[in-house]
Specification:
Strand order of the largest sheet: 1-2
Number of strands: 2
Shape: elongated
Distance between the termini: 40 Å
Helix content: 55-70%
């Protein structure tokens, strides 16, 4: 039988493809397909990293430590009639005058203080939080790919650098700023959250945006 010889061409280099891609509706559809594919992959990467960071590797253990006196603390808070919400403990009241505020601040100097996030009902259902977390990861991935795909001369290296830059912006703006004022725990874990998954997302976005 006669053999079949030929060359496998990349999609954009195959004969006739340049004419096909010149059609007004083909390239937007191809780009949209890339965007959707990245959203699915990138969102899954983000969601999986959150699982590793907060559960499997438990990098944020310092932010959710166990205390054997938790029942006594919760009972005391409930007995005080505190409404659900987050409270800054160890500060003057909002209705005090400037002189009273300064006097109270002097009295509180060197005393214990804390941040309290108190909820009256423990919701053990994990289905909706998982669904909402996954949806948020998809939205973040979609927005990030839109950002990278609008860059000029994008490639894997540039995408990686942009990804790390975005991760570090979010790290400095929120967790590190809170750490400066409130000594919130888990700052190293937040730093890892701002570098590792965003480097992966950035490199992948650079590769896919370049091919798009």
């Amino acid at each position: 039988m006669p053999g079949i010889a030929g060359t496998i061409w990349p999609m954009s280099n195959r004969p006739g493809c340049h004419k096909l891609f010149s059609l007004p509706f083909v390239k937007p559809l191809y780009t949209m397909k890339k965007h959707l594919l990245y959203t699915l992959i990138g969102g899954t990467i983000l969601f999986f990293w959150q699982f590793l960071s907060h559960a499997a590797l438990n990098l944020h253990a310092d932010a959710q430590q166990y205390t054997p006196v938790q029942s006594e603390i919760l009972d005391a808070i409930a007995a005080a009639g505190l409404e659900p919400g987050q409270y800054m403990l160890g500060q003057p009241g909002p209705t005090e005058t400037m002189e009273e505020w300064e006097s109270a601040m002097d009295a509180l100097e060197g005393k214990p203080w804390g941040l309290l996030n108190y909820q009256t009902v423990d919701h053990s259902d994990m289905i909706m939080p998982l669904i909402r977390g996954y949806l948020i990861a998809f939205i973040v991935a979609a927005l990030f790919f839109w950002l990278v795909s609008n860059l000029k001369a994008v490639d894997v290296k540039k995408g990686l650098l942009v990804g790390v830059a975005v991760g570090m912006i979010s790290y400095f703006l929120e967790p590190y700023s809170d750490f400066i004022w409130y000594k919130t725990p888990g700052i190293v874990a937040h730093l890892m959250d701002g570098i590792i998954p965003w480097a992966v997302l950035g490199a992948l976005a650079g590769k896919m945006a370049k091919n798009a």
